[in-house]
Amino acid sequence: MRLLEVEDLHVEFAARGLDNRVRVARALNGVSFTVDAGEVVGLVGETGAGKSLTALAAMGLLRAPARIPQGSIRFEGQDILAMSDRELEKIRGRRMAMVVQSPLTSLDPLKRIGDQLVRMQRVHGTARGAEARARAEAMLAAVRIPDPARRMQAWPHELSGGMAQRVLIAMALVNEPALVIADEPTTGLDVTVQAQVLDTLRDLVRARNLGALVITHDLGVVAHYCQRVAVMFAGRIVEDGPVAEVFARPAHPYTQALIASTPGRIAQLGYTVTGGTPPDLYDLPSGCLYRDRCPRATTACLAPPPRIALDATHGAACHYAWEAA
Length: 325
Prior knowledge:
alpha/beta, Rossmann fold, 8-stranded mixed sheet, 4-stranded antiparallel sheet
């Protein structure tokens, strides 16, 4: 079942410079992807690629000066961009939920953990009173927090980073949403705790047949926890497909560079790690945005690259995708 469908999404920001001129940053440029029930989709790319902005747009959380000049976002068949704030509030946190970065700063420091979980249910009308507290405690147990009854009484500052991140997962899932978006859910956690948190999220997605969008810059996370991946660069998805296929036959030079920069066996595949910086979003070049860093760039790359379908599920936005794959 199709849960989330993002099609040709563009997001831009207007800002007035010191010279009093208004400049426009084109932050997302034609982003398209889908998330189905029961699958985990990874959205991967370097810092500034537009991953978190894509998540905020999908949740209907963009505010001025952000503007969406074209594109569509549909959740369970409903047009997110056509909804009012009141309509969005009925599904955000109830049918679709988000796990954010920085768990220790995302929890209310003045409320106990149990009270925050109960409030999530009361606000969305899923449960109240004793039932809400019972569901909250069960959810803490589901995310593998030991002694959940005692943790219901804990304050946020009493939790470790890993424990706080599990609480955020519990808060996102306590209302039994269909879709969960996890934005860098393991930032700042040590490797062992990262694995535990991601194992918990993956197991809950499977058990409840949820759809999940996991935003990360870590290809190891994508390889172990996602079924499909979309690779972002400078506000565009440059390659997408099943994880196994994309990792085995990366067709876009940027995907190849990401894989080459990953420590371990996967980095020994003969791809080139490229230097350079992302293009200026206020002054994007025409054609392929990666051409200034691409070792294969030719004059053909002065034209916008089409998405070339390498098979029914794998594609790359590169003029030479067939040669690379």
